[in-house]
Amino acid sequence: MALVGNLRDFGLSDFLYLVDRGYKTGCLHLTRGEDAASLYFDKGKLVTAGRNGAHARVTDVLIQRGKLTQQQLDGATFAAHSGTPLSFTLAEQNLISREDLQRTLQQHIEESVYSLFGWPDGEFRFEQNQRPSNDAPIVPVPLSVENLIMEGVRRIDEWGRIKDRIPSTDMVVRFVEQPGEKAKGVNLSTEEWRVFARINGKHTLAEVASKTNLSDFDVCRIVYGFLTAGLVEVQKKPRPVVAGERPGQETPKVKKSLVSRIINRIRGM
After folding, report:
1. Which of 44, 116, 138, 173 is the most buried (most CB within 10 A)?
2. Domain residue spans in the chain?
3. Out of 20-24, 134-138, 251-255, which region has the weakest mean confidence (pLDDT)?
4. Residue 80 C-alpha from the chain's centroid
5. Is the pLDDT of residue 80 over 70?
6. DSSP 3-state of 148
7. Contact in structure between 208 and 173 (CB atoms under 8 Å)
8. Residue range 66-89: average pLDDT?
9. Which fold would CATH assign to domain 163-267?
10. Confidence category of residue 216, pLDDT binned at 50, 70, 90
């Protein structure tokens, strides 16, 4: 018999602890309005997860994140191992290293789970011994529930601060003409440079996340730091002009000289 309930009475963190301590194998199905998620566990550890009922295949995830090409997959031959996850076979065929596979799928799975900690309610159903399909993005090394809970709770707290200034990933980010004094102490990490290079006054935060292969949370967190340092500002995405309407003020183009001045200023600090 499936275990059912509502997250308002039994929180996600509590349920994950129960799965971990009980060494449970099966699938936790979550629904809230039109949103849905499925978390698969093996002996208390998370092996894969998906959102909104979509059957994400491991090949789709790896292609989307630039780890494999369709040409590589078309030219590959896979041995038919009954019951062996396709993700394991990809590594056996040397199409991707086991380390890169673990890192990529772990990020995909974690991002599918973290936002669930913000659900104040929602129906849950745990199906004992239910397992994912073999072509699902199954991570080679199952993930610790404790780490997921700690990071998920931390993100909820951090999201609260970020959303005060970045209420939506549909916001457009652009450089300010005169960076503030706080910019003098800025030292950018590799991920921050990736986001920095995509800021053009046109792309939304969601689009920047897609182009950098970073999560929405990480991009918003980085841009929040840029905002605090006085390097950028965010604004609502301009509404598309309907035929026959008089177009409003267009989003100003980012001058290359401005970007160059900001980059040189940061590098010279």
Report:
1. 173
2. 3-159, 163-267
3. 251-255
4. 32
5. no
6. helix
7. yes
8. 79
9. Arc Repressor Mutant, subunit A (1.10.10)
10. confident
